[in-house]
Amino acid sequence: MTVFLSILGVVALIAILIYNSLIGKKNQVDNIFAGVDTVLKKRYDLIPNLVASVERYMEHEKSTLEKVTEYRAQAMKPGISDDQKIALDAKLTSALGAINIAMEAYPDLKANENVMHLMRTLNEIEEQISAARRAYNQSVTDLNNAIEMFPTNIVAGWMNLQRRLLFEITTTERQNVNVHDLFNRS
């Protein structure tokens, strides 16, 4: 009887440790995503100033500016899921990259002090977003591993924990910038 109770106690202790570990990993993912969300909010706050500064110069790229504004508005809506935020972030990152490339064709715009300040600030925020994405992806990988690996997958199944999505770069961001095309735009 003592051996049975000892084994039952060890199994209960292991289950408690696994449960606590999974809760810690889930909370870490939520905490880091909140950090990513904060940096993304900074980016969203900066976008109206950037668009206002460049739109009078960039009449030909009006659709790009409209996309940026649209993605920002969608991302600022309350109640959207983390997965939707990740998808909108990818679209917004791609559209902001298109603005950077388009600005190369406007020498007056590139020389404008306000635009230069906005672009420097945006670059700093992009670096912060990049660092936050790396931290988020690492914590999501830890959680996803715990959800899928034995024996934690059993407890994760009881807790109804689901895999989380990683921040991934878009296909266009994976391609090298064609410098030749940039210099031949104007």
Please give a structural write-up:
This protein is an all-alpha fold. It has eight helices and no strands. It has helices spanning 2-54, 62-76, 82-103, 107-111, 113-148, 152-158, 171-174, 179-183. The model has no long low-confidence stretch (mean pLDDT 86).
Proportion of residues in β-strands: under 5%
Estimate the mean pLDDT confidence.
86
Task: Work out the oligomeric state of the chains in this entry.
Answer: single chain
Total helical segments = 8
Question: What's the helix and strand layout?
Answer:
Layout: H1 2-54, H2 62-76, H3 82-103, H4 107-111, H5 113-148, H6 152-158, H7 171-174, H8 179-183
Helix pairs in contact: 1-2, 1-5, 2-3
Write a brief structural summary:
The chain has 186 residues and is an all-alpha fold. The chain is built from eight helices and no strands.
